[in-house]
Amino acid sequence: MALGTFVAASPLRAAKLWGSQRLANLAPERRASFVRWYRAFGILLLLAGVLVAVDGIVFSSYHH
Residue 54, CB half-sphere, CA atoms under 13 Å: how many? Predict the structure, then answer.
C-alpha cells in the first residue's frame, strides 16, 4: 500500500526513480501521458494492497 500511495501521490518523482531513462527519452507531450499512467498504476497498487489487507482482516477466521 505504501508503494501505491507514493506512486499515486507523486507520479513524477516515482517515474524519475524507476523509469528515468524512458522518461528522459520521451517528448514533452508524451511525458505527461507517461506520468498519468504512472499515477494510474499507483492507484491500482494501492487498491490491491487495500483489498489484500481487508481480506486478511475480515476473512482471517475462515482460513484454516
Answer: 6
Phi (first) and psi of residue 19, to 5 degrees: -130, 35
Q: What's the CA gap between 15 and 34, in Å, rounded? A: 8
pTM of the model: 0.77
Query: What is the domain extent for residue 12?
Result: 2-58
Tally of domains in the chain = 1
| Amino acid making up residue 17 | L
CB-based contacts of 13: which residues, under 8 Å, 6+ apart? Answer: none
Where residue 57 falls (left for φ over 0; alpha for ψ -120 to 50; beta otherwise) is alpha
Q: What is the pLDDT of residues 15-56, one digit of tens each?
A: 888 877 888 888 888 988 888 888 999 999 999 999 999 988
Q: How far apart are CA 31 and CA 49, in angstroms?
A: 27
